Request: fold
Amino acid sequence: MPTDIYARLRDLAASVEANPGEMRPVLLRVTTDLFALHPRHTGEEVRLYEEMAGKLIDDADESTLTQVARKLARCVDAPPALLKRIRARGGEPAREILSKTPQIDRRDLRQIAASGACDLASSVAARGDLDREIARLLAARPEREVLRALAANANAPLGGDDLRLLAARGREDSALARALLDRGDPTLELLPLYLSANAKERARLLALAMDANLSQTGRPESYGLQDEVTARRIELSATRQKRATFALTLADLLKCDPLIARRMVDDDSGDALAVAFVALGLPIEVAARIFLIAFPKIALSPDAFDRNMRLIATAPRRVALRMVEAMVGAPLPETHGGPRLAARREDAEAREGLWQAQITDTQGFRRA
Reply:
């Protein structure tokens, strides 16, 4: 960078101090453009730029300072003192510096991640060079804006504990849930986001839950079918075809937020509801009647109905319980379909046969 350019700009700045409101923002932008043209600078060039910009920065409006910050963020040898002054102004210029500039001390980043203002912490969360400690501090923040920025940062090194913490918050924050799911192939830590997942992601989460249950293979289920009175209550509530009432009944049985139960009921695919039926120990024939009578979109789609009935027939109760507890964020009451009930869920082969018989009945029902 030619030193004489800086000398001329410095002289020009001194000559226009009588009218700083018009010329100083222009001079600051021009000076910064010259500095940002080159990836590396000599010590003299850095000193000259810092001297020149230092005289102009306090008079710059936020728009000008934002442009300056955006360009300096790409310069690996931007003057640290100047960057600090821009950060001190706050607002969008400070956010530009915090989200991109490599020269910021890691101690400053940790402090902002732990207790800084929400907008500044969100900017730190978007950095491409986060370490595990800073990511962990950000994941523990209460503000959803910070969590969304962290989840959307594909370079953020999120560990299993971080993902579980974020997924728990994502149950009630669809934007956060989507950002977490968009990071790539879902992991078991994201099971709480099942209701926000698409069909492919749900299939992956279900497969992960099934794989996690492999250690229980061969062991009998510890829970039996739901008692007839409760099963009848569920069926009557559903077949009245009042979604709000059915959701309240489901929320009462699952001991969960009614809004989560309503999301299960309103889910067009029906698979979240199918998982809930298995977790509650609802007999498969009752589940089939509910889908046929109360959910016309599923009843009129052979693929959707068959898929849900197969899920009910083959999913282990332990897996369904784990999935529903993840979705609702609380353990299901043990009294629902507990081990003291005499009836026991049939083994997988018997349930598959019952499912096939139900499909035959359903096809006859459709023909009629």
Observations:
- Residues 3-100 form one domain.
- The chain has three domains: 3-100, 106-187, 228-367.
